[in-house]
Design a protein that fits this description.
6 strands, single chain, 227 residues
Length: 227
């Protein structure tokens, strides 16, 4: 919602989709002349049709930003948690970004952006499916960007990789380098305006991800990760 707020302030007409209709309606009431809403769940096949309904309400789409996702620590490897995460972060993700890709291909242009995570940098033992699906998202966008080049399509891609953001996704405030949603939204809009291909938010996480990648696997596997 914070990103959509900024775009409304910039004069854009925005379409917002999500599972909770009451939150969508409350958001639209703040600026009804600039806002269209659509209830949808990315884990459902009907989500693609509902996305197109939202696009029709707006009269078109220039920028698609996917920010849906779930994540839980799951040291016990509860299969329900692991599979639910895959269903949203991998299957639902694929459903929505392919729909956006096809739309922009038919339109002849567009900007396809996703909010993934730096969690895809390395496999996290406390959250296997979360870190694995975030790596999936990073790689999928890489593949789509290459595909668009192969097909000579002027589609812009942006993979936004934040660290810990103080949202409902995090169950408590005991996370290091916790960032405020408003500040993260400003960075996201700035990256989208500059048409960045990949952006890590913020500089502290840029440094962390850089050194994170350098850790050899045999050392990483011996580390004990806690929140």
């Amino acid at each position: 919602y914070e990103v959509a707020k900024i775009y409304r302030q910039l004069g854009w007409r925005v379409g917002v989709a999500g599972r909770r209709l009451e939150r969508l309606e409350a958001f639209r009431e703040q600026a009804p002349e600039q806002t269209e809403i659509q209830q949808l769940d990315v884990t459902e096949v009907e989500a693609v049709d509902k996305l197109h309904l939202l696009i029709d309400k707006l009269g078109g789409m220039d920028l698609f930003l996917l920010s849906t996702g779930v994540g839980n620590q799951n040291r016990t490897l509860n299969p329900d948690i692991e599979l639910a995460t895959v269903n949203t972060n991998a299957i639902g993700f694929t459903r929505m970004v392919t729909a956006a890709y096809h739309y922009f291909k038919e339109q002849g242009c567009g900007h396809l952006a996703v909010i993934s995570s730096i969690a895809g940098t390395k496999g996290l033992g406390v959250a296997p499916s979360y870190s694995a699906t975030k790596r999936f998202q990073n790689t999928y966008i890489d593949a789509l960007a290459q595909l668009a080049r192969m097909e000579k399509l002027p589609i812009i891609f942006t993979d936004i990789r934040p660290g810990f953001v103080k949202t409902a996704l995090l169950k408590n405030d005991n996370y290091p380098l916790l960032m405020r949603p408003e500040r993260v939204a400003q960075r996201i809009v700035r990256a989208l305006k500059r048409k960045k291909r990949t952006v890590i938010i913020d500089w502290r996480y840029v440094t962390l991800a850089f050194f994170w990648k350098l850790i050899p696997d045999y050392i990483w596997e011996r580390l004990s990760i806690h929140n």
